[in-house]
Design goal:
Layout lengths: L18 H7 L7 E3 L5 E3 L4 H16 L15 H16 L13 E5 L6 H10 L2 E6 L2 H14 L4 E4 L17 E6 L7 H14 L14 H4 L4 H13 L6 E8 L5 H10 L4 E9 L2 E9 L3 H12 L1
Length: about 300
Amino acid sequence: MSTKAQLHSRNQHSEGYDFLRLVAQTPELEAFTISNPRGQTTIDFQNASAVRMLNRALLKTHYNIDFWDIPAGYLCPPIPGRVDYIHYLADLLADSNNQDIPRGRQIKMLDIGTGASLVYPLTGQSEYGWNFTGVDIDAGALKSARQICEFNKLKITLRRQNKPENIFRGVIEANDTFHATMCNPPFHSSMEQANKGTQRKWANLGKGHSKKLNFGGQNAELWCPGGEIKFIARMVEQSMEFADQCLWFTSLVSKKDNLQPLCRILEKARVADFKVVQMAQGQKTSRFVAWTYMKKDQRFLFANRAWV
């Protein structure tokens, strides 16, 4: 699949940030705005407080989230790129629905590693009305997610994964069915590697050396033994146990070089179908891998039982 030159066509941020509108909705953002060398309004993306305030403004302005905040040190995700994952998932689900994007609470999504920010359920529920279950191993992240839900009166199911070695086991219950799972896996293999990755990003942006992690992040959000290949391989292995309870299993893949070994893992798992969906945000390209154990006619029947 060819790489897109820009954000998904339905992404509300495809034209960039409208700071006039954002500040009008969230006046506190104005204190963090600066002018870049071309005289355009922006923020200092190396300032964690500025990034957090920008996210608060984006979620309020575009996704009707009146209150949003996260504890210091937790991952503060860039909203435009995260929303792209939601929109491309909608296209994937439309393939089993006569190219019509399914909407409403009957569409059930499982977010693995939902985080303190709860960004996928918040944006996915706003854009398509989907019914989300968010899972995390971190008690602090789930406490933050619950506060966001309670303040905004949102119906999002939150579950604790008590065993770090498990992904689906222990959180998918016997009577659950999901149309898709999604995950932004920890992609570094160690904290040292995570720090080096951050330094490279700031160097590429011309920011020099920084001890700050890009957009923050707790250990479990940034790294795990073996990095994302091992994590997604474990996800594939455990997904076999829930083959008839989920239409599509998906995960972001941060590194292009990891695609080939992951595709070999999926081939050995004897899935019915798998896809690599390319996404692009400006000069950055990202992607997610999706796999299913259901053949095309089975996918259509599974989808339509729930969507009718």
